[in-house]
Design goal:
161 residues, mainly alpha, 0% strand, elongated
């Protein structure tokens, strides 16, 4: 397998993982969470606040964490767009420079790694604002996210061929 193929597989896998995380977080319950005037049903923030049962003081701290996460994510998305634009501009060349292509692929993979780190650190920082009695809710919340992105499970009672 060539390095280029390997990097493309990694990039696609990371993009799918990012999209999956966002889709999961944007799935809201059909009921409006209580005491969440500044959040709306279906928003990732509302889902997190409801799942972890954050109080007002925790919600204020969470606002700061969310703002930092959104800022960092926005920067990485903008960088990703610039990198992809540069990569696809290479397709206009008569002869594609494989060194430039490899370099951009490495940068795109690093950018995707950065996106994953931003998400990972956001959830790690989220735990720091919790009270000990909320740790079980946090563990359940993280388990639900992990199951969502793990390998598919065979149907119960079914055989794998």
């Amino acid at each position: 397998m060539s390095r280029e193929t390997f990097y493309r597989i990694i990039i696609v896998a990371l993009l799918l993982l990012n999209l999956g995380v966002l889709a999961y977080l944007w799935q809201g319950k059909n009921t409006e969470p209580k005491d969440m005037g500044r959040y709306h049903r279906g928003e990732p923030a509302a889902f997190i606040i409801e799942s972890l049962q954050l109080d007002e003081a925790q919600q204020a701290k969470f606002d700061g964490l969310r703002d930092k996460h959104q800022h960092d994510s926005r920067q990485l998305r903008e960088e990703s767009k610039q990198l992809h634009d540069a990569l696809f501009k290479l397709l206009h060349d008569e002869v594609v420079d494989s060194a430039k292509t490899d370099s951009l692929m490495v940068l795109i993979a690093a950018n995707n790694r950065g996106k994953e780190m931003v998400n990972f650190n956001h959830f790690r920082e989220l735990k720091t604002i919790l009270k000990p009695e909320q740790y079980k809710l946090y563990d359940e919340f993280i388990e639900a996210i992990a199951k969502r992105f793990g390998p598919p499970q065979p149907p119960h009672g079914g055989r794998r061929h």
